[in-house]
Amino acid sequence: MAFNLLRTSTRSLLSPSFSPLRVALSSPSASQILLRQLSSEARSKIDGAIKANDVVLFMKGTPDLPQCGFSRAVCQILEVQGVEGFKSFNCLEDAELREGIKEYSSWPTIPQLYVKGEFIGGCDIVLSMHQDGQLEKLFADEGIVAPEQAAAAAAAPEK
Q1: pLDDT tens string for the chain (159 positions)?
Q2: Residue 109: CA count within 13 A, CB half-sphere
Q3: 3-state SS of the chain: helix, strand, coil percent to 5?
């Protein structure tokens, strides 16, 4: 009888539907332990930066020296769109910011772009919006760039 119980337990552990993470997260106390809480100090710093600046980019590296291809791509898109003087934060310099911004936005990757306090997305979303004209419209509608400047930037050949 004990052997049958053991065999049943082993079979359930090997089944494709078994997930240790699902089991661990099914308990409220386990999910609370696994979820890192963003400190109120870090949250207020991020809030302040996003509210104080029209365009904010949390990235790896700096606009002059991006340390990630995705961060470089978003900087190039902002340049092509005619966005000047955006605020950037190098997430590689601050571990709390690097993890905190992911929790703040509920978005798992960096870079992250914010426009007028609204989270826009990461590189893939910014690129898609750039390609279909939504980003140009957003920047013009929000007064980030003049409508004629946005149109000229969109018409210019990409580098």
Answers
A1: 444 444 444 444 444 444 444 444 454 544 444 445 788 888 999 999 999 999 999 999 999 999 999 999 999 999 999 999 899 999 999 999 999 999 999 999 999 999 999 999 999 999 999 999 999 999 999 999 987 665 666 566 655
A2: 12
A3: 60, 10, 30
Residue 135: both structure tokens together: 């980003």
User: Is there a contact between 46 and 107 (Cβ–Cβ < 8 Å)?
Assistant: no
Q: Check: CB of residue 55 under 8 Å from CB of residue 78.
A: yes
Angle between helices 40-52 and 95-105 (to 10 degrees): 70
Question: Which helix (DSSP H) or strand (DSSP E) does residue 114 occupy?
Answer: strand 112-115
Cα(57)–Cα(84) distance, integer angstroms: 12
The structure tokens 């997305």 sit at 121
Instruction: Provide the Cα torsion 152, 157, 158, 159; round to 10°.
Output: -120
User: Which amino acid appears at position 30 of this protein?
Assistant: A
**Residue 77 burial (C-beta neighbours within 10 Å; 0-12, 13-18, 19+):** buried
Peptide bond into 111 cis (omega under 30): yes
